């Protein structure tokens, strides 16, 4: 009795299994992308190959391809996050090959760009700034002009070519730093490295380095950045030393070498000139102030940014 029961249940199970197997097989072979692959390679694929490779075909049909089943890279459903399968023929078998999916490619490209921007001082939110967002957020004419100028700078950039940067000025919170970030990101997309330097911190850092002999090294690095961006120019407590020994030589070098330089500042040119005229010591140093202004005007074109204060 028992024996018969056993074999009977085995039989049921195996028919069950067979049924499920057939069902699954049908499903897999009806999958659109599986069918496409089989059709495209019909001259090389035999029925036997299909039968032997069914588990691979099943795996292929169940995984997300071209990110079609995933909400985001973090939410990737595939066995290997960020990789999607491709069907290939290997000898007498159909096999899978996993490759980086579109979302992962974009993600990797972005981190590569972000590494390229050596902007030690810039807040993270600006690392994803784009010129498009900058314009979309406020369609004022002055924004259009800023975006036009920024775009042509990026398009026309070539190493060693004489090109004016921008001197972006305007009040606190209008998006000057954000625009620098957007330009840096557009440049990075073309593999052009830029460096954004937050001037008050930079000058503090240089001053602190006087004791340890790295002053020249730091200044050299800034001098030679293919595209240099001075953020918050004029926000530092200006000393004659910072003006004449640090900023002056950097600007002079960039002028002679035709190296594009950008600035952001709360001051217009007159305000900045005043800032450079009265150093910490309180003496009036008009000639020195005029000299540094000349360099800035040579390097950059002034552009007023207006709008609401976007800082909460
Ligand atoms: P500024 O440098 O002129 O003082 P910021 O560039 O720092 O101003 O901008 C102020 C705040 O508004 C920042 O938090 C910045 O990220 C945000 N911001 C500026 N412009 C935009 C924009 N177009 N889209 C989204 N956020 C922006
Ligand atoms: Mg700023």
What features would you describe in this structure?
- The chain has 312 residues and is of the alpha/beta class.
- The chain folds into two domains: 4-102, no CATH class; 116-304, 3-Layer(aba) Sandwich (Rossmann fold).
- 52% of the residues lie in helices and 13% in strands.
- It has helices at residues 2-30, 32-40, 47-52, 54-62, 102-116, 131-136, 141-156, 176-189, 199-208, 215-223, 240-256, 269-277, 286-299, and strands at 83-90, 93-100, 165-169, 194-198, 227-231, 261-265, 300-304.
- The strands form two sheets. The protein has a five-stranded parallel beta sheet. It has a two-stranded antiparallel sheet with strand order 1-2.
- Helix 1 (2-30) crosses helix 4 and helix 10 packs across helix 11.
- It starts with a helix and ends in an 8-residue tail after the last strand.
- 29% of the residues are buried.
- Adenosine-5'-diphosphate (ADP) binds next to helix 6 and helix 8.
